Amino acid sequence: xxxxxxxxxxxxxxxxxxxxxxxxxxxxxxxxxxxxxxxxxxxxxxxxxxxxxxxxxxxxxxxxxxxxxxxxxxxxxxxxxxxxxxxxxxxxxxxxxxxxxxxxxxxxxxxxxxxxxxxxxxxxxxxxxxxxxxxxxxxxxxxxxxxxxxxxxxxxxxxxxxxxxxxxxxxxxxxxxxxxxxxxxxxxxxxxxxxxxxxxxx
Length: 202
Description:
This protein is α+β, with helices and mostly antiparallel strands. Helix content is 16%, strand content 30%. It has helices at 17-27, 45-51, 86-99; strands spanning 8-11, 35-36, 63-70, 106-116, 141-146, 154-158, 161-166, 172-177, 182-183, 192-201. The strands form 2 sheets. It has a 7-stranded antiparallel sheet, with no helix packed on it. A 3-stranded antiparallel sheet has the order 7-6-9, with no helix packed on it. A hairpin with a 2-residue loop joins β6 and β7. It starts with 7 loop residues before the first strand and ends with a strand.
């Protein structure tokens, strides 16, 4: 499989059972720090408001985030490594590189998101469609890793048309082109949806 030429690829059971359980245990422990996102949403209020004029099924809700790493030139913070838990990302990406025989990777941002249940959410609802970085000349890839079993699909768009929906499944990894318009969805049945997101190039 040539991972470099795929628009998106779903990889189940990406980590060993032991490796996955350790990540799940860490992110759901009572000492792992989570931070409430501004505007109580996955994006800025203005962005959501503008996008709702085009995408009628947007429904936002509470998202907590832990930022592991952010490249300073992208305006994500002063330091590249932002968390003592960055070793999780290092280990995860090393496994990915080894599996797909990729020599090097440059990470631009890596974080884990926790979305809380939206009891008023419907199957057709989704969060605000976006690209992680809006610069059209910034070509990058996304590693999206589902930490727990939940509902709340990841959705890919072409314009306003939905072209692909992928359901969360613990230890499932989606690899996709970061220039594809996409979004997630808050769970309406599960209590929480936890996803690790790494923007990178190789």
